[in-house]
């Protein structure tokens, strides 16, 4: 079960009462129900050095040199994640009643002499969902959140529309039959008035034909059903233009399709060679895909642009369409002008490789938020192209979509198990959080010690 090294370094832990056993490995924390004699679902998180159960054994805290996590043991679902700056952490403790994680921390060469406290009350209050959400998208203005998941019990794909500012469910869209594993597809039009949705059947599911449906969000009804001509084997991704005027569907195993919904003509614009996830510029006059295909609309003139050094994993335009962000599997984000003629800069992750899953610009275009597959959310100052502090504390749940509030002071996220999260990123809130973590600002004596010759001023209220 364990190795001598693991025992020597105490990289295992029993829950209070001894019913559960946790053991760290290189890429996960393995869990056993000792009483039942069976292994439970492992917690997928790498390089864990410290673990600790809650008093009731329902929660497990983990720590590595770069992060602290909180997990629900029964489902192995992450509830909270907090990025650290290469500290050495020890003596993790979960105070479930107070909603806190406490730990000792110090520099890399020390054993940890400073007590730190993390507030995890909001993470514990998030109910979470055992069923995984396969896909989620915010409308461009952030007022709506659409999500989809495949339900094997009844062989269907289900779509749900939520309030993008509160997370409250608004209504369910009609189910789409899909007997075997299906990957949902969905995308909002740039004006948020329409939603294109569909289901991609598994390759061996010959009984389900791929199709797309255009949904009028305000009227809560389908306006058009689109069947790929010739019985195309699959639809990988789709995009819809402003006002629902056109729909593009791409497929790695066949030609892309374009429907002009004003005239009803398929292939009104030739897009045969286009592949990858398509994203329209907000004015609807350009389409960019994750594979670097650029299509001018409505002329259909195509070009190719290497958007970044690696595989593009996420794309986003600013609200006015003047800047495009392209993220890749290494965590780098390349910024382009809206016509893709000029490279504006590159955002380089400070903590190594991060597979980016979602991007969002603030309404004024000055801040970019990105989310990685491990649930980390990082804010970037686009004036300096530098990160705004450490990643935000999250639940570690893989994130599908991000959106800013109109005033830019709140960030919203939708993940695989936690369908809706809210982050207060207003500067006063960040300052208050920093002061609380530091135990207050510098005293006059500390100021003289660290900043000699500079007049003292109060740094925290």
TrEMBL record:
<feature type="repeat" description="WD">
    <location>
        <begin position="356"/>
        <end position="390"/>
    </location>
</feature>
<protein>
    <submittedName>
        <fullName>Uncharacterized protein</fullName>
    </submittedName>
</protein>
<dbReference type="InterPro" id="IPR001680">
    <property type="entry name" value="WD40_rpt"/>
</dbReference>
<keyword id="KW-0853">WD repeat</keyword>
<dbReference type="InterPro" id="IPR015943">
    <property type="entry name" value="WD40/YVTN_repeat-like_dom_sf"/>
</dbReference>
<dbReference type="Pfam" id="PF00400">
    <property type="entry name" value="WD40"/>
</dbReference>
């Amino acid at each position: 079960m364990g190795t001598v090294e693991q025992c020597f370094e105490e990289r295992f832990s029993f829950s209070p009462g001894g019913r559960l056993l946790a053991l760290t490995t290189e890429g996960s924390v393995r869990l056993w129900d000792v009483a039942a004699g069976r292994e439970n679902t492992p917690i997928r998180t790498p390089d864990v050095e410290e673990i600790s159960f809650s008093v009731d054994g329902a929660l497990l805290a983990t720590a590595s040199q770069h992060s602290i996590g909180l997990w629900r043991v029964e489902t192995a679902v992450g509830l909270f994640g907090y990025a650290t700056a290469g500290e050495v952490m020890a003596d993790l403790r979960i105070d479930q009643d107070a909603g806190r994680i406490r730990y000792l921390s110090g520099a890399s060469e020390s054993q940890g002499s400073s007590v730190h406290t993390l507030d995890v009350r909001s993470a514990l209050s998030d109910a979470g969902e055992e069923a995984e959400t396969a896909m989620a998208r915010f409308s461009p203005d952030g007022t709506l959140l659409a999500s989809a998941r495949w339900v094997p019990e009844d062989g269907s794909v289900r779509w749900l529309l939520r309030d993008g500012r509160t997370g409250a469910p608004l209504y369910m869209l009609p189910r789409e039959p899909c007997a075997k594993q299906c990957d949902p597809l969905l995308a909002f039009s740039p004006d948020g008035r329409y939603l294109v949705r569909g289901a991609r059947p598994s390759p061996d599911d010959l009984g389900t034909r791929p199709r797309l449906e255009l949904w009028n969000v305000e009227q809560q009804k389908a306006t058009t059903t689109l069947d790929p001509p010739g019985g195309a084997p699959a639809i990988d991704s789709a995009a819809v233009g402003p006002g629902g005027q056109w729909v593009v569907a791409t497929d790695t195993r066949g030609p892309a399709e374009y429907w002009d919904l004003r005239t009803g003509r398929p292939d009104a614009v030739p897009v045969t060679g286009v592949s990858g996830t398509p994203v329209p510029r907000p004015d609807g006059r350009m389409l960019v895909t994750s594979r670097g295909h650029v299509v001018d609309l409505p002329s259909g003139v195509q070009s190719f642009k290497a958007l970044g050094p690696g595989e593009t994993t996420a794309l986003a335009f600013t609200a006015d369409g003047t800047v495009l962000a392209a993220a890749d599997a290494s965590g780098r984000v390349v910024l382009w002008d809206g016509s893709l003629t000029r490279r504006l800069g590159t955002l380089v992750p400070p903590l190594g490789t991060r597979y980016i899953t979602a991007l969002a610009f603030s309404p004024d275009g000055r801040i970019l938020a990105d989310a990685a597959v491990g649930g980390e959310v990082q804010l970037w100052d686009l004036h300096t192209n530098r990160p705004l502090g450490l990643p935000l504390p999250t639940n570690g749940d893989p994130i599908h979509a991000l959106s800013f509030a109109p005033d830019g002071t709140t960030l919203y996220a939708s993940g695989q198990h936690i369908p809706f999260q809210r982050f207060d990123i207003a500067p006063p809130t960040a300052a208050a959080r920093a002061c609380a973590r530091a135990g207050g600002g510098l005293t006059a004596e500390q100021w003289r010690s660290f900043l000699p010759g500079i007049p003292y001023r109060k740094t925290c209220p």
